[in-house]
Amino acid sequence: MSVPLSIPPSPRRPHLLLAALVLLVLFLLRASLFVVPQTDQALIVQLGEPRRVIVTPGLYARWPLVQSVILFDRRLLDDEMGGEEVILGDQRRLIVDSFTRYRITDPLRFYQAVGPQAEAIRSRLDAVVSGSLRRVLGGETLLAVLSADRDRIMGRIRDQVNREMSGFGVTIVDVRIRRADLPAENTQAILRRMQSERERVAKQARAEGAEAAARIRADADRARTVLLAEARGEAERLRGEGERATIELLAAAYRQDPEFFVVWRTLEAYRNGLGTAVPGAGPVILGAEGDFFRLLREMPQAAADPAATPPPGKTAP
């Protein structure tokens, strides 16, 4: 007859159960507790249904294996758009690079609109910003876009994007144009237009310079003519005064001795008329009986008959 053997219980089994219980409690605590950082905000989802929104940082609890936590960044987020061509109000074409700064302000609405992925909003935001850029810039000129008036334009774009994105749980803080360039063909056309404008300005400057030079030259010619006329007038006046003085001197000399004056003037006429040869002129033939030689005919008689010579102050018979 055999006797059954009984195995005594192991003394280590209660310790294993206690350790397993402790690990289970730690797992449940770890699964039920979570931390919301200062840079994030949390949405509690239970079996796909939103249950609670947490915007204050700290330590919180949830039902493990039933509820999940989705964190959304509460800081400013950037969304950059590549260059796209926009037609302005003055029919100019412009390549615009823009960026948008936004913040998730309503995690529940954001989750209902785009889901748990924060990056999913970017495609929708790009489409809204692109449409607003085209609408607003389509009514503005190139000069307004490139001037200090750009702040007003970007404010209008931001307000429009805010209205259209209000149902997505985000707030648009700012929309900015990072770079605005003209297309290559427009750039060449503007460069040619600028060159033509510079050439026109240069021609205008040269024309104005030529006009000023002509005006200065005319003023100088007029001043020269006036100076010459005044000089000629002064010369004629001085010449007239000289001739008047000469005539007065001759008249005074004539009054002192009229006969001597007649003889002197006759001899001067002989010297000027006969002693000075005219270049290129032929011989001059004069009759001996003319008045020109009367003094020559009378001089021999006066020399032969001294009594015929009248005394001073009297005329010969």
Structure characterization notes:
- With 317 residues, the protein is α+β, with helices and mostly antiparallel strands.
- It folds into 3 domains: 14-73, no CATH class; 77-182, Band 7 domain (Tetrahydropterin Synthase, Chain A); 203-271.
- 52% of the residues lie in helices and 20% in strands.
- The protein has 8 helices and 8 strands; from the N terminus they run H-E-E-E-E-E-E-E-H-H-H-H-E-H-H-H.
- It has helices spanning 13-32, 107-114, 121-137, 142-145, 150-164, 184-256, 258-275, 294-304; strands at 33-36, 40-46, 49-54, 58-61, 67-73, 77-87, 93-104, 170-181.
- The strands form 3 sheets. It has a 3-stranded antiparallel sheet, covered by helices on one side. A 3-stranded antiparallel sheet has the order 6-7-8, covered by helices on one side. Strands 1-4 form a two-stranded antiparallel sheet.
- The longest helix has 73 residues, at 184-256.
- The protein starts with 12 loop residues before the first helix and ends in a 13-residue tail after the last helix.
CATH topology of the largest domain: Tetrahydropterin Synthase, Chain A
Distance between the termini: 226 Å
Mean pLDDT: 80
**What would CATH call the homologous superfamily of the largest domain?**
Band 7 domain
Q: What fraction strand?
A: 15-25%
Helicity range? 40-55%
| Contiguous helical run count | 8
The low-pLDDT segments are 311-317
* Rg measurement, Å: 62 Å
